[in-house]
Task: structure prediction
Amino acid sequence: MNEQIQEIKKSFSSGLSRVKSLEALQKIRVSLLGKKGKITLLLKKLTTLDGSKRKEVGKKINDLKSHIENKLLEKENILKEKESKKALSESTIDITLPGRPQNVGTIHPLTQTEKMIIDVFQSMGFSVAEGPEVETDYYNFEALNFPRDHPARDMQDTFFVEGDLLLRTHTSTVQIRTMEQKAPPIRIVSPGKVYRCDDIDATHSPIFHQVEGLCVGPDIHFQHFKGTVEAFIANIFGKDTKVRFRPSFFPFTEPSAEVDIMGPDGWLEIMGCGMVDPNVFENVGKKWKDRGEENPYDPDKISGFAFGMGVERIAMLLHQVNDMRLFYENDIRFLKQFGK
Ligand code: PHE
Result:
């Protein structure tokens, strides 16, 4: 056995000096220390020796084993370092290459405009309210004083969904929804999408955006309304902008008006508005009474004004865009100009 030990030691050191890879090193490890490795087998054989002989040879084998383990570890570290150096030198990074540009998006001009409008009204104490886009006939027409078969319903081409449901044609629905839930005083603006059966052209789209406004209280009169609208226009279009209130008609306001501003080529309409029609207060009052609550919307004690404007229209005027379709096509070259 002594000879075998010497033999193993010799062939191990000559084998080790020839090893050039971690795989080859692992092979040597297995051939000596593995389950059927030479050292393992020797250790098994020990049981055939007796007493003192077994002790003496056992020590020699164990010495050899730890000698081999140390050498293997040493070699392994050397090989690992060589390999990582090689990998590093093969994958050089060229720090002179230009970086990849990061494209940062910008806020859509319609969103920017909507936010501008809301900001102005918020600074005057209005808060934001929202309502659903799929509505019932009641909120879109009935409660807003459009009687059934009233010709005013023809003013708006409606997308009907099924039964009583339709896509709202204006954000005035939110006036009713708000007043049904909350007693005056009320000061809200309500932004959102509205839908009309229109063909697409430079100034029409079947989907567009409105911002509705509603202010209701015990002593709100036309002058509050005029002052609010004028302050809004001064803020958005500049304080020297000329404003005109032109008589108009909406079933849910009385009197009604349309507001025009002076543009480079003449008057341009920017919103519909008016004093809330007493019939609208009657309709929301009924809801309060049906719930068994005291009605806070007695038309003799309460008044208010409402307005509604198209966001696309305001954005077109602000940025001198003459075709609404540009807002929906999302051509990056167009959108980039509004980068913020
Ligand atoms: N809802 C009207 C429209 O879409 C605008 C409007 C709102 C008019 C509020 C008066 C009061 O044309």
Q: What stands out?
A: The domain at 109-338 is CATH 3.30.930.10 (BirA Bifunctional Protein; domain 2). The chain has two domains: 2-90, 109-338.
